[in-house]
Amino acid sequence: MGHPPLEFSDCYLDSPEFRESLKCYEIELDRTSKSLKELIKDGNSVINAINGYSVAVQKFSQTLSTFQFDFIGDSLTDDEINIAESFQEFAGLLQEVEHDRMMLVQNASDLLIKPLEKFRKEQIGVTKEKRKKFEKESEKYYSQLDKHLNLSAKKKESQLQEADELVDKERVNFYESSVEYVYQIHQVQDRKKFDVVEPVLAFLHSILTLNNLTVEMTQDFMPYKQELQLSLQNTRNHYESTREEMEELMKRMKHPSQISKMHSFLPMEGYLYCQEKWALGVSWVKYYCKYHKEGRLLVMTPCEQRPTTKQGPAQLTLKSCIRRKSDSIDKRFCFDVETVESRPVSITCILIALSEGDRKLWMEAMDGKEPIYHSPIHKQAEMELNEVGFKFVRKCINYVETKGVTQEGVYRTVGSNIQVQKLLNAFFDSTHPGDVDLYSSDWDIKTITSALKFYLRCVLCEPLMTYTLHRDLMCAAKSDNLDFRLSEIHSLTYKLPEKNREMLEMLIKHLVNVCSHSNENLMSPSNMGVIFGPTLMRAKEDTVAAMLDIKFQNIVVEILIEDYKKIFSNRPEDSTVPPIPPPRITPRKRQPITISKRPPRVFQALSPDHFHRAESNY
Fold first, then answer.
1. Which H or E run contains 446?
2. pLDDT tens for each residue of 350-366
3. Cα–Cα distance, 573 to 569 (Å, whole number)
4. Which of helix, strand or coil describes residue 453?
5. Residue ranges of the Rho-GAP domain (predicted)?
């Protein structure tokens, strides 16, 4: 129940009930003043917390904007470009949010703190001053009244009259202060209903307005988020495919028998010790050497630099290479190389390899006169693309499209290696080739899809899209110009041998059909690219650089699937291939994904007067 109203007439009576009612109002006033102090204190804490949070977010966004993604290789996929630029987009979004936040809370003190402080000082403070005056005048009046009533009637008339006038004066002052005090109490009780609520309303409105703007930005962010998540998933799939290939390469490179195969594609390089003769004897100096077989150029870079001079690499033209006889020197693994300098003078250098196997590799690379010994590389029997192979691929495709086109993860799930080898051995048996019923209970969908991939990847003597066109296909996939990328792959497809193109068309048509059921099997063109990129294409050399290009092999297969009709329905209009632009030199035809930008907002400065004017319009 509320307080009883204070009547001005009660000020003259000054009854105990009046004083008790006045006491209740004073207690309420003290409670309001204390609550306002807490509200102002907590409001300042909220404002400081918002400012501190905003400063931290802005610092975070600056760190994001300066973060750099280095990459391996000579080009990035579209997905990798989107990922590399994502932190810039994140930073821009955060900066936009914080810009809006600071615009809306920069006047928070004017909206909340100052109006509350003003009310507490001007209204409650004035009321307390009126209270002090009332209590002072009350004390003076009742003190004077007590003195007046204690005067003896025997006093002179002039003295009694003077005392009466003094009491009347004090009574008027007391009544006046009492009325003003009651009036001020009513004023502060009525004004606090809007003078306290309006600033809180304005401050709350600014916070909720920011939340509403954040919701709008979130809606604008969602399409970008979905595109970026797709890029992240595609890149993760490419990584998994590349990681598996690189692990296999690492395992192969641990065997010495693979080193000679590796050096058949690359310049021979490694550490050698060269004999150098000095006045006081002979020393062996360590060099890092690289031999380029095309120009018979041997580049020797000293590993131990002399303190006085800095030596650069020496370039020598090789004339001959001969193994050093064991009884002619007390060192092992030696061989002689005869070089020709700019002058027609031959120089013979004695070199020491790191091992006997290393010496054989150097001599093999330099066409040395010593026989080359290396362990034969065990390799599975390979075969040319023939009618039995076509029959096998057709049967596998027919089975998948009949039995497993809607199966989740078709071609992604792997079958038993034993069963795969059993199926291939039975189908390609020289006595009864192709005489296998795939619909038999001996085979399941995983075995058949794995056998198809294994045949294309490991059984054929070269990949379906050939070693010859591999480099051109990689350059096309790395192009920033999407139209050029498609037209180049279209043109290169028709440079394949007839049988290869026929099987490629049959296979891609099948993959298009499988991808058309992606809602059920979850196999999109991008997923198929990850699976069949390394299956249909690969570099002739086994190197880490070739492994890193697998993601572009995946892109080639993805383009073949997405543009199947354009590529295989018509031959390319111009058979001459235009020059391939270097990666990222020309502007991108398609802009990378980005967060949509809204027109700049104009915010009206919020204040209690703003709300007062808004209410007056109703």
1. helix 445-454
2. 899 998 888 888 988 88
3. 12
4. helix
5. 383-568
